[in-house]
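Title: Comparing notes on inverse folding

I've been comparing how different people in this forum approach sequence design from structure. To keep things fair, I'm posting one structure and asking everyone to reply with a full sequence. Here's the target:
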């Protein structure tokens, strides 16, 4: 018997994808010493991202500076945050010797936060958030990555949905098989079938952590 297909849920207003990347080598060339440069089919510009979010009903996004392509160059990420006009926040991955002045400048442009049992204890004590993202990168099973389910259940039981955010990892670099956005939302619905808990993850927790109004 075939497994019934899980559909992506309708999302609440203010839903947030807390982990995406932007690659736009035409506007922002890759670093000359980058160990890996995303190929054209792996790239996604700020405009591509905006269209993807709109087509799936995602209102807000957190753009993470990637390890691929740009190394310590934050310009592509910062430009994308500004181009999304208040809908985006950024997470920077700067060099170890980055100055306090530069960190403040990034913050003004929409970046930054200070940086399995210990994690659960920290969540329960209200000292951290956990991001649900990238199951395909560490699961040992094929989709729908059933071996991840028990970890998500523990995170929700110990920390509650108010300490959890979700990120798609769009545009899905270095994956062994094709990955689409919709199935990532369907995966979230399978992990968190309760609509109120999903709203807490997608809207409330993300707004508190990343400072969305």
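Reply #1:
Here's my take.
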């Amino acid at each position: 018997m075939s497994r019934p297909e899980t559909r992506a849920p309708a999302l609440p207003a203010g839903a947030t994808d807390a982990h995406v990347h932007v690659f736009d080598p035409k506007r922002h060339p890759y670093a000359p010493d980058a160990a890996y440069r995303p190929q054209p089919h792996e790239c996604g510009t700020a405009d591509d991202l905006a269209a993807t979010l709109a087509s799936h009903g995602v209102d807000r996004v957190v753009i993470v500076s990637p390890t691929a392509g740009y190394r310590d160059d934050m310009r592509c990420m910062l430009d994308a945050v500004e181009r999304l006009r208040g809908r985006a926040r950024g997470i920077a991955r700067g060099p170890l010797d980055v100055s306090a002045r530069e960190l403040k400048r990034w913050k003004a442009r929409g970046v930054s936060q200070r940086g399995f049992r210990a994690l659960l204890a920290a969540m329960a004590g209200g000292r951290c958030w956990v991001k649900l993202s990238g199951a395909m990168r560490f699961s040992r099973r094929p989709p729908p990555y059933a071996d991840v389910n028990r970890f998500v259940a523990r995170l929700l039981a110990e920390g509650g949905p108010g300490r959890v955010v979700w990120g798609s990892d769009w545009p899905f670099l270095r994956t062994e098989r094709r990955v689409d956005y919709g199935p990532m939302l369907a995966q979230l619905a399978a992990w968190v079938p309760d609509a109120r808990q999903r709203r807490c993850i997608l809207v409330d927790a993300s707004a508190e952590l990343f400072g969305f109004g």
